[in-house]
Amino acid sequence: MQRTTSRAAALLAVGALGLSACATGGGETTEGSSSGSGSSSSAAEAYQPKEGGAGGDVGVFTWWAAGSEKKGLDALVAEYKKQYPNDTFVNLAVAGGAGSNAKAKLASDLKNDQPPGSFQGHAGAELTDYIAAGQIEPVNDVVDALGGDEVFPKDLLDRLSVEGSIYSVPSNIHRANVVWANPQVLKKAGINETPKDMKAWIADMEKVKKSGVENPLSIGGTWTQVQLFETVLLSDLGADGYSGLFDGTTKWDSDEVKTAVSDFKTLLSYANTASDGDDWPPATDAVVDGKAAYNVMGDWAVAQFDDRGAKEGEDYTYFPVPGTDGVFDFLADSFTLPRGTENPDGTKDWLMTVGSADGQKAFNLAKGSIPARTDVAMDDFPAYQQSAMEDFTSDTIVSSIAHGAAVPLAWSTDISTAVAKFSSSKDEATLVKELSAAAEKNA
């Protein structure tokens, strides 16, 4: 493991930046994928689960503890029980937006050699910490049993791999750069067109404010603000400039970043005041309730809207963050095999369900995301998810900062700390300085 750890962060970071548009909704193979069976880099034989499952408890650690996220997990668990009735699912979910509380608890458990059966992690650079610490095992055999790169985009598997070893099974794909808007609030403000860039969007916010809405933009705690900030960076820098922030080709103290920081500050001036612990559902609810015109949130918001009984086109609409049309800000949830877990075969049963076509259909229909598999039919999904499937095949793909795809946990933590301070200070120069220092420290 020591030889791998020296290169893990670099290799996964390259994979995170290099993901190309590669998924489809209808079973097509992806460009550049192997036409053979199994994962292209695996030397292990495919996993052969026992009929009915290995038996025993399988504790699964997530941050899907409530609301629409829990409904997604419940749908996946129901499929797991159907596929492997001999296994017993143990829910180890810890509440906390974007997993901040869960990750702290998980780090403590892993450090104390008390790993769960499996734990949720974001695909991409976030996994490097666990790989470098020797805390998760390769799962090539499971991925092969699921169909390898015949059913998963090869570039996605590369993102989960170090030196040919695949370290988690993806359950879905989410998009982070989505604006959710209330069409009635926009109509009242005289807004009839989607803004094309950040400046135009800010101008529309002023119109909304003048129409009587105190806070045109709704936000939650720090991680939601980091997600908002990354989309402003993406808008003002473009896809290549944004991705260059993580490989050093774009400097964090460049004029373009300074412009993005200024635009971010302006956006916050139109937003409600939020504390660090405020979660995301109230921010999306503010749009449906007409208390805000806009919210930037990942497409897990769809499940929240469905939970509220909101109707697309009447209660909410959506579009890419202005200036990011044609770019897909990517993140994905995936599940791991922790080293030293008590029931590894039971964990592999869980991973088989996570990666199965039926499991992905049930889970993603409930959660608002799209399947990581390419052989789940588009027609089974509602309009937004079909549009996301189509966009993922054609858009330029970049990696989310807030959700672990672009940078490892330590770097993400430093960015979050800087953004949290900025939320109260609004000191642009200090934010640029701290972002530059975080890059120098962690890159």
Automatic annotation (TrEMBL):
Keyword Heme: no
Gene Ontology molecular function: maltose binding
Entry keyword set: Signal, Transport
GO cellular component, one term: ATP-binding cassette (ABC) transporter complex, substrate-binding subunit-containing
InterPro entries reported in the protein's UniProt record: SBP
Gene3D superfamilies: Periplasmic binding protein-like II (3.40.190.10)
Biased composition (Low complexity): 30-46
GO biological process per UniProt: maltodextrin transmembrane transport; maltose transport
Record's signal peptide: 1-23
Region feature Disordered, mapped onto this chain: 26-51
Highest taxon of the lineage: Bacteria
Family per record: Belongs to the bacterial solute-binding protein 1 family.
The protein's name: Extracellular solute-binding protein
Taxon lineage: Bacteria, Bacillati, Actinomycetota, Actinomycetes, Micrococcales
